[in-house]
Amino acid sequence: MKKTIIIVMSFLITTIIVTPSLSSSRWDEFVTKSIEYERIQELGIPVINNLKEATVQQNEIELWEQLWQGDPALRCKAGLALMDRIFPNGDPSRWQEVDGFLSISNRQPRQLAGIDAFFVVVSAIRDLPDGVWASAYILEKFGKSTRGRMYFIDDTTPEIRAVLDDVINKTGLKGDWSSTIIRGHTPFLPRYNGYISMSRAMDKHMVFINGHGAIAGNGNYSWDRDNGYIYEISERMGVSSPSR
């Protein structure tokens, strides 16, 4: 870390010589941001790597169920293993590349199972030594996805909003982590609840899921984020429609 700080300071001195108008406040901000980034890398990555050392044998459904039980370390191990199974290279910012269903009979998208794993790790890992830096590191990776921030940070649950605020306050994590809409609850992975018409789904501002299990502009299914359900789109006469 000392080596990085020396490099940063050398860069800043060179910058000020070349650009005399650089203010002291900008200097302080740049130094602070660089040191915070280094701490996130230096302290956060080892925590994650230690949790990944053990081999995990459970399938995706079993790993998802493990997210919600046990101590923080066990939940984090399950979450990291599920992220590695679902996201390419375990990278949460690549969530849009995921397709398929965790459970075909219940129409549960693997995308949303992976997002659940991601947020459980971000939340639970804070209880481990230096874990809050690991939270910041994982959030920073996910933040590279503009659509990810739009779907799951700008529009999020009260539980996740509280976790974000805590991580930002403790680590100084930079970037736009604001939320415009607070609704629903975790987990995101929905339960199948029958059929709904396209017009009804649109009226309730549901999120569409295509036939490959991915969030899309329109599709075969609609995700009711407020109530935690997924519906199959159908215009057949006599199909059931939610009363909520």
Key terms:
244 residues; alpha/beta; two-stranded antiparallel sheet; 9 helices
Can you characterise this structure?
With 244 residues, the protein is of the alpha/beta class. The chain is built from 9 helices and 9 strands. It has helices at residues 2-18, 24-51, 60-66, 72-86, 110-124, 131-142, 146-154, 158-171, 198-203; strands at 101-103, 108-109, 155-156, 181-182, 191-196, 207-209, 215-216, 221-224, 229-233. The strands form 3 sheets. A 5-stranded mixed sheet has the order 5-9-8-6-7. Strands 1-2 form a two-stranded antiparallel ribbon. The longest helix has 28 residues, at 24-51. The termini are far apart.
**Structural class estimated from helices and strands:** alpha/beta
Strand order, sheet with most strands = 5-9-8-6-7
Low-confidence sequence ranges: 4-18, 27-32
Shape: globular
Provide mean pLDDT, rounded.
Answer: 87
Largest sheet: 5 strands, mixed
Strand-and-helix sequence, N→C?
HHHHEEHHHEHEEHEEEE
Helix content: 40-55%
